[in-house]
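In response to a reviewer's request, we include the raw inputs and outputs for one of the modeled complexes. The two entities were modeled together in a single run.
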Amino acid sequence: MNLSNLIKKDHITFKKSVDSFEDAIYESGQVLLDKRIIEKKYLDKVIENVKTIGPYIVIAPMIALSHARPEDGANALGMSLLMLEEPINFSKDKDRKAKAIITLAASNENDHLDALSQMSKMLMENMESFLGAKDKETILKMIKNYS
Amino acid sequence: MKKLNKVMILCGMGFGSSFIVKTNVEKVLKEMGYDDVEVGHTDVGSAHEGIADFLICGNDLTESCERYGPVVSLSNLFDMDELRGKLEDYLKE
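The model returned the following structure tokens for the whole complex.
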């Protein structure tokens, strides 16, 4: 499935700031939760993983990919994006700040790979514009070019 | 240059991030003249010693991966320059 099919207008949220990385994860995943694409325990697992394994979900400066395994509470394929004006740190002692928190859920090992490749390509070629985007239209346009 | 048969990319869940890096690694290895290398990806939990000639992971997973083999760690999974530089450093003998 294409990136543009997964990240629709209502899957993108802009917010000024959050109080903690836990809040960022819940806010980013909320729309998927509302649509029953994931269960709350999926987001709880992401948070647990960050606390035990470390902030490995911050895969590039300013970009966090919030995800757990399908069996942790993902019912279907889904993606959502939270863009923060003020980045939040996912680590207590290192600089692992992120302003774009992408939630990814898939119910099996493969469905998400196309969209993930498209998203990677998009980010690799437009990192600055993506992080500087101030509205949904800019992001949707970018996504459309890569889907 | 070191000889190379197999590289494993490890990520926390074996679900996404490692796949992102896989395409980039294949590209860079080819550029470096490694045509016949197996590039796999899985989660740290499924790794074991000897799973590959060396491992690539995000820098927050380095400690978890070191027990399985030599590790090349990345701070930015999207940065081709970082990947190229670190692979060149590791592979030149």
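As requested, we also summarize the result in words. Residues 113-132 of chain A form the longest helix (20 residues). The mean pLDDT of chain A is 95.
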